[in-house]
Each structure stands twice: as C-alpha cells, then as structure tokens.
Amino acid sequence: TFFSDIFFLLFFSQYKFRDLTIEELKTVNKTYPNFTFSMNTYTFKDGSQKDLLNFSGTVPVKYGNSYNIPIHLWILDSHPFAPPICFLKPTVNMGILVGKHVDAHGRIYLPYLQNWSHPKSTVIGLIKEMIAKFEEELPLYSLSSSEAARQSELLSYIAKITAGDTDAKSKSNIGGGKNEGCFNKITVVGAGDLGIACVLAVAAKGTADKVVLLDLSEGAAKGGTMDLEIFSLPNVEISKDFSASADSKVVVLTVNSLGNAQTYLDVIQSNVDLFRGIIPAVSHYSQNTVLLVASHPVEVMTYVSWKLSVFPKNRVIGVGANLDTGRFQYILTNLLKAEVLAEDAWIIGEQGEDKVLSWTSCNSVANEKEAVAARNSREKVANRAMEVLKGKGQRSWSVGLSVADLTDSILKDKRKVHSVCTLAKGCCNINSEVFLSLPCILGTNGVIEMVKLEEDPLVQEKLQSSAGSIHDLQQQLKL
C-alpha cells in the first residue's frame, strides 16, 4: 500500500518529522493518484548530497486548452517546516519558457514557497498555487524536431542533478567553449583598488568557481595586481586578454578613466571612450552574461553599457544603492531596533546627495488618522537612520562586498530583492531612457521583476528630477 511504502522509505532515513510528513503525503496521493514516489539522491548547488523522498507526475492546467504539466517535487528532511524543492520535468518534446516563476533549468519559484510556514502551508496548497500561476503563464511549449535535439543537453543536466551526480560533473557539460569545466565564472574588468576589492570579496564569498581579473593597464603588473600574482588565490586568474573572460556568468565593470579631463562632462566622456573598447569585447566573449556596472557615475555608465552591448535591459544593471540600502536596513534593525520597518525600506534614485528613501509596503490601519500617525512615526525613525547613514562614504572594500552580494544573488538565482540601477523608463512617469536605483528581484538572468513602490508624490517628484538631470547629461555624450 501507499502508506506502508512511504513509511518504509522514511523509516530508514533522516527525516525528523516522519509522522507529519506521512500524513501530508497521504493527502497528496489521494488528491493526485498519478504521482509516483521514490527515494533518490539530490545534489545541492554547493555539491553536498542527501537522500530525499521525491515524487513526480502531472498537474492539470487550463491555458485556452487543457494541458498536463509534468512536475517533480523533492521533500526536504525538515519537512513540513521547510518547503519542497520544485522542478518542471519536461519531456524531450517540451521546451521551458523562462519567466517570473521558472528558470532556465526548470526550477520553480513561487510566493507560496518564499512564504512557507507550517501548518498554514501544505504541499496541496503549493500545487494549487503552482496550477494557478501556470494558468497565467504557461511554463512549457512544444518543440520542433530540431529543437528537441538541442533540448537533450538541458534534460541531461537536470537528470544529473536528480540522479546524484556532483555539481562539478554536471557543470562540465554545460556551456561548452574553452572554459566548459567552469560553470560559475565571474570576470572583473579593471585592476584598480575597486577591481581588486571585488575579486577578493567575490572569492571570499565562494559562489564563483573561477574569478578572472582583466588588467587593462599598460606595462607590467603593478600594486595590488602584482600582490595577487605573488600570493596567488585558488580559482583567481589575472589576464590582459579579453578572451580570458569567455563564458562568464557575470562581468563586473570597475574601470574609471584616469585622464586629465578638465570638466565633469569630460571625465564622463573619457569613461565612455574607455567603455567603447571594453563592452563590445566582453559582450562578444560572453554573449549571455549579466553586466554589473560599478564605474562612476554608475547611472550613466550603466546606460552606456546597455547601449554599447545591445543586451536586453534585464541583463545590464548597476550596483546603484545596494550598499546604501544594506547599511540603512542594518541601522534600522540593529541600532534603532526597528526591524519591521527595515524589511520594506529602500534607498533608491541616484547615488550621492540626491538619493531617496522609499517603501515597498506599509501596514494596514483602521482609519486615515491612524495612517497619518503611523507614517509620521515611521518617518521619524527613518530620518534618524538617514542621519546615522550620512558621511559613511563608499570605500573600495565596501563596494566590493556589495558587488559580491549582488553576484551571489545572480549566480545562485536567489530571487532576492536589491536596490540596483535598472532602466527606469515607465516607472513614476519617467519617459526617458535613464537608469536609476529601484528595488528589483535578481536571478540568473539579471533583473526578473521590479518591486512596486508606495505611491508617494514627493518620491516620484525626486525621481523625475534625477531622471531629467541624468538624461540631459547623457544627451551631451558622444557614444
């Protein structure tokens, strides 16, 4: 019987809450009798492995016609206090439609998973939300015979994850090219203090399998680059050849012109001229990369990178206000003990004195009087936090830590919210092509979705003002 089979599988496993898990899976089996259950080895992104109970089958989805969408769910050993790991399980005749809820490897992401809380959250509830989201945006499509042949490589990769092969083995079959043995590769362009800080922070984070530092300075290695060569780090390569950046998942741009420009516009134009020789080269060697811009001014140089690369807007982002937001939220939580406020507080707009504080949600209140009181209280605490934040500055090592934080979210497809420079056209009645820091969900392909802000006329006015001045500056540049 189903009960005895599941009990047998769990009895000899490390599952902490066997009885709760059995009861829930009995309900799943009753509702979806087509599901098949087994115990297999699951390989996590860090290469660790566990024997986990899992089940696969199809769920009915209506999208014009009726479809049976194949899914595969893995039950963690801390279930039901931790959510399942969910994948699509496409056949060779099915292609994956990457969207808000599905990545290129078929991993499924849903608000239900992010907000999982026992006993409110259940596998049946998860599957119901999965069906609802798939009815809004179908996750699979039919492949032609030629496309089906190319699909086999992806299916092979997914099979290796679920069959217990190590990440290192499966990585070697993805991507191809001269760096096919390196799956998560990051290139940092520029060997100044900021570039070296980014290399050290990314390497320390441990997310990347390989970090390449592109040293574009003339002559022999100097300063920090020479030190990196002397005291070599594992998985860090220093090169002057753009081909060393091939197949990077993320390319971080830290270069800034050191010319003798006389005006602010001349300084920016020097950076633009520098980027004209860099962006086409890195874009050629890493055509599917995410460009992460840390050069100054970040809003303008992110725009320049977007124009020169001809990449889609989601794959060109600037470090923006990620560091300021992290500091601001830390101050609210740890110094002012206002953790609830910190969850929804963001520094947005442009870097420097014109940065703006905004919120992505607010607590519901009974009447307008309470709403005004709550807003005033929130603003008092926020103003205290902003005062603490003033004068902190942004040293190379702190920006490097921020870059490592962003690359970690991208490489691990964390779907975490960051305040980063993204194309702001269409937001807050901005009609020009400018990049401003806004809260965005980041994943493998860069920006997945922009998080909606509270409708605050003052915030919108400040963002529009920033957009106007940045656009005027961009109009004077020669791209």
TrEMBL record:
An example of a Gene Ontology BP annotation on this entry?
protein transport
Locate the UEV domain: which residues?
2-144
What PROSITE patterns does the record tag this protein with? UEV
Spell out the molecular function terms from Gene Ontology: L-lactate dehydrogenase (NAD+) activity
Provide the reaction this enzyme catalyses: (S)-lactate + NAD(+) = pyruvate + NADH + H(+)
Q: What does this protein do?
A: Interconverts simultaneously and stereospecifically pyruvate and lactate with concomitant interconversion of NADH and NAD(+).
Q: Tell me the protein's name.
A: UEVLD enzyme
Name of the gene: Uevld
